[in-house]
Specification:
Length: 150
């Protein structure tokens, strides 16, 4: 079982067999992933097109299933926030309920709303246009610009 999520900086991250991989490079149709702990671990995986990844070098540490479950929950929730017009709190609640029905024992490790609400609202605000900083930045459709009245 594998999934590709986003890091906090928006870069792709592969979750595969309990380990986290960062994208190392892409050549032709192959994506090469390296372990997140690159200073201590030489774990690597290769993925051809959209097929399942293949472990090419073993890890020197244990997998972190809890962290991966939290990150996958957060990424899927952020995707839903970008796609659906519902409130952030309602989407969080519905995602938590669906996680409860699929894996009741795993819900206890998921982050609470207050822990991740800032990043969720930042994701929601990405869909809104930026506020103008100057009056000249304001453009109203259907209005004829007559210049400055001062």
């Amino acid at each position: 079982m594998y999934s590709v999520i986003e890091t906090q900086k928006g870069k792709p991250c592969l979750l595969f067999n309990g380990y986290r991989y960062l994208k190392d490079r892409t050549r032709n149709n192959n994506v090469y992933w390296r372990c997140e702990n690159r200073s201590n671990c030489s774990g690597r995986a290769t993925q051809e097109d959209n097929s399942a990844p293949i472990l090419t070098a073993p890890h020197s540490h244990e997998p972190d299933e809890k962290r991966n479950a939290c990150e996958e929950f957060r990424t899927k929730l952020k995707r839903r926030i970008r796609d659906e017009p519902l409130s952030v709190r309602k989407l969080f609640r519905s995602k938590l309920i669906s996680a409860q029905t699929t894996n009741p024992s795993g819900v206890s490790i998921l982050p609470q709303f207050l822990e991740i609400k800032n990043s969720l609202y930042d994701t929601k605000n990405e869909t809104y246009p930026r506020l103008p900083k100057l009056i000249d930045d304001v453009k109203i459709e259907g209005m004829l610009y007559l210049g400055s009245f001062l």
